[in-house]
Amino acid sequence: MRGLRQVQHAQRQRLRFRKRGLLLAACVAGATSASAQDLYFAQPYANRMQQNPAYAGLLDDYSITLSYRNQFPTLAGTFQTSQLAADYRFRDQHSAAGLLVNYDRTGGVGYTRFQAGGVYAYHLRLNEQLSLSGGASVSYGLQRVSYGNLVFGDQLSDDGVTRDYSLEVADYKPVHYVTAGVGSLLYTDRFWVGAAAHHLNQPDLGFITQSTLPLRLNLQGGYKVYFVRTTIKQEHREISLAPVVNYTRQGGSQRAEAGLYFTATPLTLGAVYRGVPLPGSLQPQQLLTAIAGVSVGSFRLGYSYDMSLSQFSSDLGGAHEISLALREFDSLEAAWRRLKRRNYPTIPCPAF
Q: What is the annotated signal peptide range for this record (predicted)?
């Protein structure tokens, strides 16, 4: 009996230390959010306003997109991200408005972050081929740590009964913040290049002490080569190849990507290599992302999977991501705009 009690006591001690570690992880997640990167989507063009507000209204007259990402699925307390994005291009063709709502959570430590905001973009045609778009975004955010799903050692009695209270729980108040960003895009019907700056005001996200969220800089660009490009019964069809590049810097970390998209309407296939070595930087985590998307009528459905090329990341598992978009393009209105010579070219970036 005594030996059994010693075993139970040792198990409770291990459980206690493990739960303390979870609590510490939750506090670290909140208190050091400033040193971490923002959420990342493997389908950057399905979630294009996330990387640059100037994308609002450039692909469709209006669209609504739902995205879900499950990061490190083999790890207890997997990191999950959901996003609702919508944009609308006004009839004057010069301006567009958008909405972005993000929700992040970790199942193990009870950390959640909610962020919602508006986007505005203005489009300007420089000449017959070249166009410019500028955008800005303002968002409100709320992050918190929930302790309801944690069990601490002092809640366990000798007979295995779990009490409802613990002396170790210290409930921190939720953190409210406001963040702002700007971006621009220069494009033709063949290429695009853009730059964006997020968290211009570097908001404070610390639960206990001040901890600012660093400025995030993003550069993106690409070029599309058309092999077939036709419009049949007001429906656009193409066979094309588009190399893309992306660079992100936030705080002391940076990430570079290079990818290739192949489109044969209605199917799009892509591969993106994340972790391109940069001069003067540490060896980054390397990932290969496979992307597949299909467009059927007004709907777009995309799926991607991150395959790790390093041992550390592969032990935690990859990442699954899915996007579903409802988009619409008013072909009659477009024909009227062409007659009035007010039709603006559509940016040639991929849809996923």
A: 1-36
What is the longest distance spanned by two Cα atoms in the chain? 91
Give residue for tokens 């997109």: 65
Of 110, 142, 113, the closest CA to residue 23 belongs to 110
Closest CA to 60 of 328, 347, 265, 324: 328
- Rounded Cα distance between 171 and 23, Å, is 11
Q: Are 287 and 314 in contact (CB under 8 A)?
A: no
Within the chain, residue ranges assigned H as helices are: 2-31, 48-51, 311-316, 331-339
What are the 10-residue block averages of pLDDT along the chain, 352 residues in total? 42 41 39 53 90 90 90 64 91 88 77 90 89 94 73 61 57 82 93 94 75 88 91 78 92 87 93 82 77 89 86 63 81 49 73 90
CA dihedral 258, 264, 269, 275 (to 10 degrees): 0
pLDDT recorded at residue 33: 39
How far, in Å, CA of 351 to CA of 301, rounded? 10
Tokens found for residue 1: 């009996």
Q: What pTM was estimated for this model as a whole?
A: 0.77
The identity of residue 62, as a single letter, is Y
Name the nearest CA neighbour of 292 among 315, 330, 312, 262.
262
- Please confirm whether the linkage preceding 284 is cis (ω < 30° from 0): no
Please tell me the distance from the alpha carbon of residue 154 to that of residue 125, in angstroms, as a whole number.
67
Strand-pairing partners, residue 217, are: 197, 249
Through-space distance between the first and last CA atoms of the chain, rounded to whole angstroms:
62
Distance CA 301, CA 326 (A): 9
56 three-class SS: coil
Domain residue limits, the chain: 44-340
- What pLDDT is attached to residue 72? 65
What CATH number matches the domain at 44-340, 3.10.50.30, 3.40.30.10, 3.40.5.10, 2.40.160.40? 2.40.160.40
Give the torsion through C-alpha atoms of 22, 23, 24, 26, to 10 deg.
90
Quick check: 19 and 166 in contact, CB under 8 A? no
Query: For the chain, percent helix, then strand, then coil, each to nearest 5?
Result: 15, 50, 35
